[in-house]
Design goal:
The chain is an alpha+beta fold and 314 residues long. It contains 11 helices and 10 strands. Strand 1 and strand 2 form a beta hairpin. The protein starts with 6 loop residues before the first strand and ends with a helix.
Amino acid sequence: MVEAGSIVELAGGHYRLREALAGSAYGVVWRADAPGAGPGVALKLVNTEQMERAPAPLRARWIACARTELAFLRGLAPWDGRHIVRLVDAGEHQGMPALALELLDGDLAAHLAAEQAAGRPVPVLQALDWAAQVNQALAKVHAYGWRHLDLKPGNLLLERGTNTLKLADFGTNRRLDDLRAHSYGGTANWQAPEQFFPGADGYLTGAACDIFALGALLYYLVCGRLLRYSAACGQAWQAHGREAAAVLAAQGRPAVLQADEAALFAGRAAPALPLLRKLLAERPGDRPRHALEISRMLADAAAALRQPALRSAA
């Protein structure tokens, strides 16, 4: 069992645990002191307590997720880490993979919750800029031959001083060239229809799932709420687990972007509405296929939103 003050030895030296920062079903993230006078790190360990209680297939899956994350981050060239959390060190602890990651100021989910509680909505231009940063991160993931499959505010780390986002948590990553149907993975509130509703053999996902999640994130940033479709998927999963898709389909699957939701978004970021519709297309093939297309549409929308301010200042 690890606790504050425990020492974890990785390839680059010894790390002292300070405080737990976050946790999930299989992982625990600690703030830790780095060897020597180096900056602190976020140390990600497999949750051994949960591991002991889990059945063997689930334990194997959790270990595989940790190894997948490590493989992806190790594969990045040093200059390709922009908007992706940086791997500082790695090794094993208690026979399980362990990762030391750069330490940022927290995740976007916590930041947005605090801002909403204070009555401060995200400025629209900031929302578009964050979406552009996430688009760059996904482009890099896809360029390296992976799909992320769990894009959400909790997996985006924020550097507050520069308003920079970095994508994290690559345990759900799957190779793009692996076209087989697979078991469920990810978070229901942010999933494309093909990732939430399985086919006969399982879930058929691709890079387009990440593009849909980017659209769901853009809507959330601009409007301050989940799409009703996304909320319905999340509530169904919480209530019914793996039967959620069947239950929701029987109740009548909601449209992804409903008319009043599009109107609300247009009232705040009208130039970005065509992009939102493309990102949230029901069919994967109707979503943008290239990050460059998304980048251009975001830049055009931001430029259009700046025009009234420029005219009023003239």
